């Protein structure tokens, strides 16, 4: 029998412990980090954020020329494109006086649509901002989650929002669970559920249909 979402959550939590996400000194740093992390590793994001500090504020970024901003975030890759996206996001955020509490006062669905209208803010980036900065419960249906659930034997929809809603249907309306679940899935994806899986010691070893099928093929020379 397949594990439900909360069973998976508790196995991950027991295995990896609380992840204390998102790693940032301020809400604004969190928001900028969500843009910088597009198509790169967190190590590169961290390097870029350090070049923007100390005193990382919206006003500081607004005062920078596009060239200076791009140069500062160079370690994150696609730095000119990301600089444009940061500036587009700031133009939207300015309407809320750079105040996350004002943003959070908007209902979740409307706020998500607003973010998706900002140039360069896709669904995964928007959901990361919503969950960690603006305290709205959305499941971040990223590549780590897709690979993990597929290997467990789920019929994972190709469409991002269909996948997100499928997972959300099995989760309580609890922001802390959404925040922790995403962080735990990332930790699991880095430790065991990589593109080339590291199955030894995996907490889902006995439940992973992909691993079970692979073992069967190795022993019997064909599919079950």
Q: Describe it for me?
A:
With 224 residues, the protein is mainly alpha-helical. Helix 2 crosses helix 3, helix 2 (27-36) runs antiparallel to helix 9 (123-132) and helix 10 (143-151) packs across helix 12 (175-191). 59% of the residues lie in helices and 0% in strands. The protein has two domains: 5-18 and 140-212, Endonuclease Iii, domain 2 (Orthogonal Bundle), CATH 1.10.1670; 27-132, Hypothetical protein, domain 2 (Endonuclease III, domain 1). The mean pLDDT is 95. It starts with a helix and ends with a helix. It is built from 13 helices and no strands. The longest helix has 17 residues, at 175-191.
CATH architecture of the largest domain: Orthogonal Bundle
CATH topology of the largest domain: Endonuclease III, domain 1
Order of helices and strands: HHHHHHHHHHHHH
| The CATH homology group name of the largest domain | Hypothetical protein, domain 2
- The CATH class label of the largest domain is Mainly Alpha
What's the average pLDDT?
95
Report the uncertain regions.
none
Helix content: 55-70%
The tally of domains stands at: 2
Number of strands: 0
* Percent of residues in beta strands: under 5%
Count the DSSP helices: 13
Radius of gyration using CA atoms only: 19 Å
Instruction: Please outline the major beta sheet.
Output: none
């Amino acid at each position: 029998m397949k594990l439900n979402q909360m069973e998976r959550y508790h196995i991950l939590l027991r295995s990896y412990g609380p992840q204390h996400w998102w790693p940032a000194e301020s809400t604004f740093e969190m928001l900028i980090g969500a843009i910088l992390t597009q198509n790169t590793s967190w190590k590169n994001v961290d390097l870029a954020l350090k070049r923007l500090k100390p005193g990382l504020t919206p006003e500081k970024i607004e005062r920078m020329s596009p060239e200076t901003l791009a140069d500062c975030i160079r370690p994150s890759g696609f730095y000119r494109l990301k600089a444009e996206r940061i500036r587009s996001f700031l133009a939207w955020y300015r309407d809320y006086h750079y105040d996350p509490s004002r943003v959070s006062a908007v209902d979740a669905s409307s706020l998500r649509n607003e973010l998706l209208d900002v140039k360069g803010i896709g669904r995964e980036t928007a959901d990361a901002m919503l969950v960690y900065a603006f305290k709205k419960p959305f499941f971040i249906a990223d590549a780590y989650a897709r690979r993990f659930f597929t290997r467990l034997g789920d019929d994972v929809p190709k469409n991002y929002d269909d996948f997100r809603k499928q997972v959300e249907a099995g989760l309580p309306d609890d922001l802390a669970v959404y925040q922790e679940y995403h962080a735990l899935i990332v930790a699991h994806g880095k430790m065991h559920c990589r593109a080339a899986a590291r199955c030894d010691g995996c907490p889902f070893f006995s439940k992973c249909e992909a691993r079970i099928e692979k073992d069967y093929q190795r022993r019997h020379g064909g599919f079950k």
